[in-house]
Fold this sequence. Notes:
about 220 residues; alpha/beta; Rossmann fold; six-stranded mixed β-sheet; four-stranded antiparallel β-sheet; 7 helices; globular; binds adenosine-5'-triphosphate; binds magnesium ion
Amino acid sequence: xxxxxxxxxxxxxxxxxxxxxxxxxxxxxxxxxxxxxxxxxxxxxxxxxxxxxxxxxxxxxxxxxxxxxxxxxxxxxxxxxxxxxxxxxxxxxxxxxxxxxxxxxxxxxxxxxxxxxxxxxxxxxxxxxxxxxxxxxxxxxxxxxxxxxxxxxxxxxxxxxxxxxxxxxxxxxxxxxxxxxxxxxxxxxxxxxxxxxxxxxxxxxxxxxxxxxxxxxxxxxxxx
Length: 224
Ligand SMILES: Nc1ncnc2c1ncn2[C@@H]1O[C@H](COP(=O)(O)OP(=O)(O)OP(=O)(O)O)[C@@H](O)[C@H]1O
Ligand SMILES: [Mg+2]
C-alpha cells in the first residue's frame, strides 16, 4: 500500500470575486521513501497542495489517505497528532517565533509530544550541528541572517522524526553552497531513514536531483 494516496483533490477558494480553483483534480500515489520535487509558476497551487497533504487545508473535494486512513475523516485530536507526529513542515517563510531562542524554536514541535527528559535537547543540538549552526543555539531569530533562520526551520522539521517532510521552497534564501549542503542533508535523511520528501522549489537543478520531478501548472500536476 502506498504511504499516501491523493485521490482527485480540488481546492476552490471562495473570494469576493470569482472562485479560484487553486488545485484541480490532482491525484498522486506516494511510496515511503519517495523524494518528489514540484516546480511551477507563482500562484500555480504548490503551497495549497502541500497544505492539503499536511492536514492544514481541507480539500473542497477528493480524499487524502495516509497509511490507508482518510486524514480529513479523523477526529480533530487525531488530525493534530498526524500533523505533529508524522509530518515535518518547512513552510515557505521560515516562521520562527521571535520571542523564543533557536533552541526553544526547535523544541516547540516536541511540546505536544513528550519524550524522556533530556532527549529533546540532545536532538535539538544534534540537528543544529547537522545544519551547521551549533554556535547559535541560544540566540534569538532576529540575531540570525535570513539563511541561518531558514536552516533553523529546516532543523526544526526533523525534531519529531517525521515520516514525511513537506518542504515549501526550503532553500530559497540560501547561497549555492549552503543550498547544496542542505540538499545533501535531505538526501541523507531520505536514504538512511526512509523519510519521504515532497519539496517545492524554483531551482530546476535541485529538482533534477530528486527521484521524481513534477510540475504544477494552473492547479494541475504534470510529470516533467
Ligand atoms: N487562503 C486563500 N484564499 C484565497 N485564495 C488563495 C488562498 N491561498 C492561495 N490562494 C490563491 O490560490 C492560488 C494558488 O496559490 P498558492 O499559494 O498555492 O500558489 P504557489 O504555487 O504556492 O505560488 P508561489 O510560488 O508564489 O508560492 C493563487 O491564485 C492564490 O492567490
Ligand atoms: Mg507557495
